[in-house]
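Box 4.2: Ligand-aware structure prediction
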Amino acid sequence: MTDALIARAAEILRINDLGHYTVPTHGLYPFQWNWDSALSALGLFHIDEDRAWREIETLFDHQWEDGMVPHIIFHKQDEGYFPGPEVWGTGRTVPTSGITQPPVTGFAVRRLYERATDKAMARRRALALLPKIARWHDWFYRARDPHGTGLVAVIHPWETGRDNSIDWDDAFDRVPTDGVGAFQRRDIQHADPAHRPTQEQYKRYIWLVQRFRSLGWDNTRLHDASPFRIVDPGFNAILLRSCTDLADLAEELGETALAGDQRAQAEQGLDALEGLWSDAWQQYLCYDRVTEALIESPSVGGLIPAFAPIAPPRAAAIAAHIDRLGERVTYLIPSHDPAAPGYDGMRYWRGPSWLIVNYMVADGLERDGHVATAQRIVADSLKLIEVGGFSEYFDPFTGAPCGGPEFTWTAAMVLEFLKREPVASG
Ligand code: GLC
């Protein structure tokens, strides 16, 4: 069984490999996506080490001058996706979107380096990527934390990677839709509309794109000008894990100044993250920077911080929280608490389980000694594949496959679960 899963996962990576980047899945997502690439590189590593580095290098070839790394790179024309480059209008030679995604590359590059069999090659490539990743992290703290709180905000739901989470339903309701003309969605031609965001949400996604475009994609203005400014604990935790991993890697490679900067950023962010902890929910919560209030919404965004080096009592509380969820669902980790209003087990980020989230949370829990919880998450992830195939996401009760099929990062995570060296516990 294991061999068959590995073979199928490798085949999916090959099917979605366009040479110097992978598409998440053909049809639904025909371009390069930011955090998909970083996480998929970990799976590619098990097939072709050189190719794994290339995936991340391609992403950084399209880094903006201000340091941002865009969430989509439109390497070639494809009519099958909306909104395409003409809607974004970012004016780049190789078109890109104008927003970003969870910065997981610091973590991924450190892991690629640690595992490398050809250390000289890995050293050369890591050294070239280090300053670029650091520049992206610096951009976050400059552009998305302009008032120096230690935490960064996202200005579009697509930036979080958890596009239609219940977490920002109220905040998103405040985004207007006036001036958004008729458009034809393509996603619902590739996937079941019941698994996807609603039309109302799409209008707001597009309104924000138009607003930012009207400001010339000038990141010195976008944060304060956006009516949607959410501090997502999961997003911040990914950034903080990447900062600490980048610091460790930089130290190892003798780049001590860069290491010091990244470490200082991480320490400040980890302190600030404490402000998002909720004793009542036993997890972190999102914070709405416009209304200046925590958002009482129990989603996996508040559990992802287990990935970052958070304080031991917080990690233990998250492990216990996930154990309790595990008594209520068949397959961990639901993206939203099934008992909470708005839960929808097949609709994208409003309930389904995602393997990439499982991977990051299990990684952190294992590191912090919560091995049984991590093992349950990994076991559930592999069962999901057996029940639902290599889908984009899964119903946490039935394991039914949702979204797109033959999904790159799902396959990459399966390779990771089955082929990686276990992370030492303790
Ligand atoms: C969806 C997901 C996002 C992912 C993208 C490509 O937009 O919500 O996290 O990066 O698809 O797979």
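In the box above, the bound molecule is alpha-D-glucopyranose. The mean pLDDT is 97.
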